[in-house]
Structure formats: C-alpha cells, structure tokens
Amino acid sequence: MSNIASMTLEQFKKIAKKMPDTPGVYFFLDKAKKVLYIGKATSLRDRVRSYFAKDLIATRGSLITSMIEKAHSVDWREVDSVLEALILEANLIKNYKPKHNTDLKDDKSWNYVVITKEDFPRVLLVRGKELAEQRLRKGPPLRGDKRHPFAKDFASPSYTTLHTFGPFPHGLQLREAMKLIRKIFPYRDTCIPCEVLTKQGKPCKPCFNVHLGLCPGVCSGEISKTEYRKIIRNISLLFQGKKKTLVVVLKREMKQAAKSERFEEAARLRKQIFALEHIRDISLIKEEYRRPQIELGVNRIEAYDIAHLRGSSNVGVMTVVENGEAQKNEYRKFRIRTANAGDDVGALREVLTRRLGHDEWPMPRIIVVDGAAAQINAAERVLKSYGVAIPVVGVVKDEKHRPRDIRGNRDLIKGRERDILLANAEAHRFAISYHRKSSRAQFNPQ
Which CATH superfamily is domain 9-82 in? Predict the structure, then answer.
C-alpha cells in the first residue's frame, strides 16, 4: 500500500516505479480502505502514474480528480493479459460497486455477457437496460440469425439467463474480447439449432459463422448437446476469472482424448490450451485510441529510432519533447522481438505497435521518425490500423548523419523545426546508448 494523500507528486512517482510494468487491475482506496475506484491497465505502473499528471482534470474530468483527492492508498492485482484484466475489472466492479465507477456511468448503459438457459445456450452481448427489461417481462423475442436460410420462419422464444457476467465499462473492448474468445471457443449466438429445424420439417444447414469457424455447427447438427455444454463451461470459467482452472481441465481432457486415440480432439484441445496461454490481445487496446484529437498532448512530440550492428543487438527507442524541453523520464526502450535482423522499417512498425499498447501514455501531436518515405509510410500504416490520426514527419540525414531535411506537412513543421530536430537527436543518442549497453551484455554474459 502507498499513502497518496500525504505525498508529493515526485514521491508518488518513485513509488509508482516499483509497480509492475504488466497488465492488471488497480484499486484506489480511502483512509478506511474502502474501494473508491477500480480500473484496468496494460501497464499498471504507467497507468497509475498517469493519474498524477498536471492536466488530470482536463484529461480525466472532475469525478476522477475528486476521487484522487480522497484516495489514501493504492493496490493492484497482476494478470497475464489485457483480456484477463478486462474480465477481472468487471468481476471486481460487480463485487465492490465502487462509487467513482458507478458515478461515471449510468447502470443501464453498462454491458453484460449473457449465456441463455437452453439446450444449446446462446452467448449474447446485452446492455444493462435490455437485461433489466428481460428480467421484468422475459421479452422481447430474439429472432434467429438472418443469415440462416430459414431464419425468417423462426422467432426464438424469450430467454432466461443461465449466467450473466459484468458489468463491463468498455463496450468496444468487450466486443473485441468476444471476437478473441469466439476464435478459441466457437459458440452459438443467434443461429437456429438443427433439432428445431428438423421438427419444423426444415433441412439443417450451416450458418455463415460455421464457415468462419465461429460456430461449432449447432445449426447443422455437427455437435451434440454434451459437447456443446463443455464449450459453455469453458466460456463460463474464463469469465469467472478462472483461467488456470480452465487450462487444468482442458489438459486433463486432452490426455484422456489422446489415451483413447481421439487424436483430432486432442489436437483441438492442445490448440485451445496454447491460445489461452498465449493470448494475443493487442486488438483490445486499439479502441482506447479512437478518441478526439483535442485530448492529445498540447505540444508533445515523440521521436523513434532503431539501432543495431549488422542486425545484431537490435533495439528501438522513444523520446519525448514537450514545449521545447526533453522529458527524459518519459523515454522508453524496446528490445526488438519479431522484426528480422537489419529490417529497420519492420523494427519501427514493431516499436510503434508496442507503444500503442500503452493507452496510459499521453498521445503526441507529432511523431518523428528517422528516415524518409519508407519510415513515414510504415508509421502511418500502424497508426491507421489503430484509428489514430497523428501526423508523421521524417528527418532525412546526409552521409555524416547530419539533418538535411524534414519531410512531411510543411505547415505543421513550420515553427517546430527546433523541437523536431531535438526529439530526433535525442532518439539517435538514446538508441546508440541503449544499443551499446545491449551489445556489451550480449558479448560479455555474466
């Protein structure tokens, strides 16, 4: 625990540095240890530190500012992925009902995941208002999947819920999360079960999601009720925050399938286990950047550079200049993981992608890259994929690595040349320093 109210900003930053740079959920507590606010983070350290920025009231609003004024301590829980942080945040908000979470949003606008009580349960995303109405009057009826050839002939009955998970504060991220989960555990949402079609004299035909691998074939009779219940069990365990238990269950079933020589089933289970243990949830972070340009840092410039020695000790860095001054406490280092040796453009793409994974870092007005068209285009493609409209400029060097030109929007560059070149020079210096340190560590192992 850390006493916040009695500490200066600098003292708190020192304590925040000790927090893990990993995904998780954080809690702000008052003097009586009552939970004031719960949030999730890609990096616990950077997200919590962001609450003590000078422009907090402008970027977060008065409710969050008043919460910070009441806060006396902070606690956190680490998880393995942003997906798990999203689920844990919802479960904790449901349990604690923190005042400053509920004040920020009307209960009826929360999002929930509902599993229906049927032979082949549906997994649905439901608004709080719709969920309340459903409990009161068990309606309105939900129609079948419009993509199914006989959907127009069926109106599925009003549902009752088997499980309800939530509330989830982040609707867009929840939809992205469901896409990830459905790739691991295909489920039925609105398609019509084969047995219902058969009773009505209709042939069983696969819906569109079957062809995409997102439905296990409920509509075409490809899966039994028993097997489908296992899928629902798996999804329920995941949303209960019991991933470790789920992995244990799947490993046991995989061993049983292999022992019984059901090798296709064992292979499918092995893929599910691998997917759970290596969740790639960068898409959950993208939506956090679809924000108005007005929220971007007023005069913040970020510069990026890559350094390596003939492809070895490949590293990248980010430097920050605000209002003409280098903000060295905000510089960041990136050890290149996926780009091929010597691929500077690929390394730049990787660094920018990982940087955009930190939604708690302030967004810049301008991004500076070291290079011309290739580097500028690579950066713009990454930003576009995240729905972020930040202009990119490139600093072109001569044979002695001295700045020769700044490429990009001339109107944007005019009057900012000094800051752009300072950010670029700092990035080059910082990248070389980090590269040398990495090289020494590589060639002089302890």
Answer: GIY-YIG endonuclease (3.40.1440.10)
